[in-house]
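Re: the multi-chain job from yesterday

Posting the exact lines I submitted so nobody has to dig through the queue logs.
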Amino acid sequence: MGEKDLRKSMSVLTIGTVIRLTSLTARQIRYYGDQGLVFPERTESNQRLYSLNDIDRILEIKDYLDEGMNIHDIKRIYYKQQLRKSKKGELTDVEARNYLKDDFLNAGRLNKSNDFRSNRL
DNA sequence: ATTCTCACA
DNA sequence: TGTGAGTA
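And the result, structure tokens for all chains:
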């Protein structure tokens, strides 16, 4: 990983900045984090801090949502992407369990109607 | 002035 | 998802 990428992964932007850069509401931005789609850091005062990479991902999520996908579909996409990145590490296995566990928990109550799993990446 | 969590007439 | 309340 180069220095440039390192800078892009530095969490230094407050949610206010993210709002201006993405035209999304604080509610939506925080929600993506709650769903494990982005992982902003936290300051000692519990303030969320986003990186430029987070901005890219948030913008991407926004597009996917506009294209009709739901949080679950997007989760699957990033889940598969990470499987490809780390071919078979122990960390992946652990994270895989977390993703699935989280998936099942949320699947228990809400939306059972949206069952179009088309976007296989 | 900003952001955070929580909850819903 | 919006929004208002009550904080930090």
